[in-house]
């Protein structure tokens, strides 16, 4: 994990710097600087607008008694997009603008929802718990299994206190 973080925070900035220098050699330093500034301002503006829309959808879902799981993921991806867009660089800008496209976020939500389901299932299976809930995962998209009444097993455990005579 530490190695991944080290690579993330060293290799990506180095690649971004190399791309900016390469782009600057093709155009000019002024054009490269202008590109970084414009994408930062444009990206921050778009992320702020879409973030406000996501926040309103979250509030609407909560008022209507619906779980805003998918909308919360949209908000998180928009927040990440904004962070990528205000970070100087070509790769992060492309990734940030991609995350602002609703269709891209929808595709990512499906994959992220499946990943979360698998992780949650592994977590539940690794513990000695008999209760599992799919609550909150309805609107990720992808395949859903329908739980029928005959599939539900209701179990009650009673702990027997040990007596002093045992």
Furnish the topology, listing elements before pairings.
Layout: H1 2-26, H2 29-63, H3 69-86, H4 90-99, H5 102-126
Helix pairs in contact: 1-2, 2-3, 2-4, 3-4, 3-5
GO cellular component, one term: membrane
Keywords: Membrane, Transmembrane, Transmembrane helix
Transmembrane segments: 6-23, 30-47, 76-101
How would you characterize the overall build of this protein?
It is a single chain. The protein has 166 residues and is mainly α. It has a domain at 42-135. The chain is 68% helix and 0% strand. It contains five helices and no strands. The chain has helices spanning 2-26, 29-63, 69-86, 90-99, 102-126. Helix 3 (69-86) packs antiparallel against helix 4 and helix 3 packs across helix 5. It is elongated and about 80 Å long. The N and C termini lie far apart (49 Å). The model is unreliable at 128-134 (pLDDT under 50).
User: Which sheet architecture does the biggest sheet show?
Assistant: none
Number of helices: 5
Rg, alpha carbons: 23 Å
Structural class, by secondary structure, is: mainly alpha
Low-pLDDT runs: 128-134
Report strand %: under 5%
Q: Estimate percent helicity.
A: 55-70%
SSE sequence, one letter per element: HHHHH
Q: Provide the residue-averaged pLDDT.
A: 81
Instruction: Using the alpha-carbon principal axes, give the shape.
Output: elongated
Organism: Gimesia panareensis
Keywords: Membrane, Transmembrane, Transmembrane helix
Transmembrane segments: 6-23, 30-47, 76-101
Protein name: Phage T7 F exclusion suppressor FxsA
């Amino acid at each position: 994990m530490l190695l991944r973080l080290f690579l993330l925070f060293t290799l990506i900035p180095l690649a971004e710097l190399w791309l900016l220098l390469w782009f600057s050699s093709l155009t000019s330093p002024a054009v490269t600087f202008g590109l970084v500034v414009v994408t930062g301002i444009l990206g921050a503006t778009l992320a702020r607008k879409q973030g406000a829309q996501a926040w309103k959808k979250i509030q609407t879902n909560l008022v209507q008694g619906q779980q805003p799981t998918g909308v919360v993921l949209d908000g998180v991806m928009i927040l990440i997009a904004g962070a990528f867009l205000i970070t100087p660089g070509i790769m992060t800008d492309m990734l940030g603008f991609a995350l602002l496209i609703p269709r891209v976020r929808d595709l990512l939500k499906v994959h992220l929802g499946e990943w979360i389901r698998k992780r949650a299932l592994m977590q539940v299976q690794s513990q000695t718990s008999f209760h599992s809930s799919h609550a909150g995962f309805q609107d990720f998209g992808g395949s859903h299994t329908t739980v029928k009444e005959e599939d539900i097993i209701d179990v009650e455990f009673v702990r027997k206190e040990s007596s002093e005579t045992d």
